[in-house]
Amino acid sequence: MANVSATDEALVQEIDRLGEKLSKLKAAIGDVVFGQESVIEQTLVTLLAGGHGLLVGVPGLAKTRLVETLGVVLGLDERRIQFTPDLMPADIVGSEVLEEAEDGKRSFRFVRGPVFCQLLMADEINRASPRTQSALLQAMQEGEVSIAGHRHKLPQPFHVLATQNPLEQEGTYPLPEAQLDRFLLEIDVDYPDRDAEKRMLIATTGANQPVARPVLSADELAAAQALVRRVPVGESVIEGILNLVRSARPGPEGRPDLGKLIAWGPGPRAAQALMLASRARALMDGRLAPSKDDVIALAAPVLRHRMALSFTARAEGVTIAHVVDRLVEPLR
Questions:
Q1: With 60 as the cut, is the pLDDT of residue 2 above it?
Q2: Which are the contacts of 204, defined by CB distance < 8 A and separation ≥ 6?
Q3: pTM of the entire predicted model
Q4: DSSP 155
């Protein structure tokens, strides 16, 4: 018992220390990105859980600025790719070039693409062709890319934060369900409130621009991600996650009142994402274990890109947000 107690005490101390660092981290981001507290929290939850995030919002809401700031405060090597219809897979992952040495011998050399970084911003990801979008699949899921039969490991930690404009859909290619499922959270980026927009207006149009400062290092982020997986989860929270995810599927275990509204529901990866994200959110608040409140708060960003509405639901004007709200009612 003494060993167990010592282990528990060490875990508590690690969580406390991480909580202090995360408070400084959020403050450093807030000095540069005004308002958007929910977006910042969900993005940090995504990174702490070791996942990838899809930021959905109209232009001009500081999505690019947020990713650049995260690269600085987390000490990560950050790159940005502007996705366009003419972007090719090799423009992302890299390619092999034929070189000739002084003695006349020829050989191929692999030239790394921008995906070889620790934090990749895929700007307007739905503007690239499906072939180019799929170039990210292996990188996002396996942390490596395959070129000419050779596997190349990506730097660790590796995260993709992609952006998408929900309004202008002309000339875009909707992300396939397989790739959407790779994103831990779909994060809605809304307009800032009046006070936040006023502070932003004053701070960003003056002589002195706010500048991000480093708070963590890549190694410290990796250690925090390992700590997230050690956070204990109570049986009631585990059952709550299972009940929520399974009830979001059409079929015998689904909600009878919602079955006709759901065309297809979330798979097991949704439950895994909800478990990891709930643990990370608890750490963000300095708590030792997640609660059902964490599950409720993260249900929408975890589920909304992993399920689709039926024709009946769309005809009746039902939205994914409405369905998720009804799914989480038993947890309240």
A1: no
A2: 210
A3: 0.89
A4: P
Q: Assess contact for 129 and 168: CB atoms under 8 A.
A: no
> Contact, 33 vs 165, CB < 8 A?
no
Specify burial of residue 203 (Cβ count, 10 A radius: 0-12, 13-18, 19+).
middle
How far is the C-alpha of 37 from the C-alpha of 237, rounded, in Å? 25
Q: Please give the Cα distance from 253 to 23 (Å, whole number).
A: 40
Q: Which domains does the chain have, with CATH numbers?
A: 17-85+116-230 (3.40.50.300), 233-332 (1.10.8.80)
23-61 per-residue burial string, b: 16 or more CB within 10 A, e: under 16: eebbebbbebbbbbeebbbbbbbbbbbbbbbbbbbeeeb
Q: Mind listing the pLDDT tens digit for each residue in 254-305?
A: 788 888 888 888 999 999 999 999 999 999 888 889 999 999 999 999 999 9
- Find tokens 């739905």 and name the residue: 126
